[in-house]
Amino acid sequence: QVTLVESGGGKVQPGGSLRPSCAASGSRFSINFMGWYRQAPGKERELVAIISNGGHPNYAESVKGRFTISRDNAESTVNLQMKSLKPEDTAVYYCNADVNRASPTGWLGETYWGQGTQVTVSS
User: Fold this and answer.
1) Taking Cα atoms as reference points, which of 83, 95, 113 lies closest to residue 48?
2) DSSP 3-state assignment of 108?
3) End-to-end alpha carbon distance in the chain
4) pLDDT 10s per residue in the chain (123 long)?
5) 55, 71 in Cβ contact below 8 A?
6) SS3 for 15-72, per residue?
7) To the nearest 5 percent, what fractions of the chain are helix, strand and coil?
């Protein structure tokens, strides 16, 4: 199993910044893509940003120019630098990892989610 643990959410005023982080732990695994999704009350979970193990990012249109995703492959961590936050960014943010994990029967492709961290943008 692989565990993802997020930190760094919180409450901030419009225009402010936050930097949630996510750390993956487990044994005998490698991570392909890591990303951040969010889910606002009454809405479906949506992709915010994703980054490949080569460091290539992709962003939702709504956050381009304001959010920056980065990862440290040696530490199995991914960060999301969020600037110029808006009230509509308010949501629970979930870390996601696409993983290859060793098992007695060979390598398994699996997807893992963190427990979520609340981000609230409000004056």
Assistant:
1) 95
2) strand
3) 40
4) 899 999 999 999 999 999 999 999 988 888 999 999 999 999 999 999 999 999 999 999 999 999 999 999 888 999 999 999 999 999 999 999 999 998 899 889 899 999 999 999 999
5) yes
6) CCCECCEEEEEECCEEEEEEEEEEECCCCCCEEEEEECCCCCEEECHHHCCCEEEEEE
7) 5, 60, 35
